């Protein structure tokens, strides 16, 4: 029972942290580092309002409480 309560507590803390969201520039830097670590080049990352992602981009993250998205474009 204690393990169950601990798990529920940890999940609620994680959910609160995720709802607050990261600043977009911080998340954009983390995503760029992951892409660079895989050896990719010739890409762009843009911060856009949620739902305003250009059709030739792919959403790779959300930030600022889900109000903005990080959009990725190859080339």
Automatic annotation (TrEMBL):
Q: Does Signal show up as a keyword for this record?
A: yes
InterPro entries xref list: DUF1161
The answer on whether this UniProt entry bears the keyword Signal reads yes
Q: Can you name the source organism? A: Pseudomonas lactis
Tell me which domain of life the UniProt entry assigns to the organism this sequence originates from: Bacteria
Read off the lineage from the record.
Bacteria, Pseudomonadati, Pseudomonadota, Gammaproteobacteria, Pseudomonadales
Q: What is this protein called?
A: DUF1161 domain-containing protein
Q: Where is the signal peptide?
A: 1-19
What the entry lists under Pfam families is as follows:
DUF1161
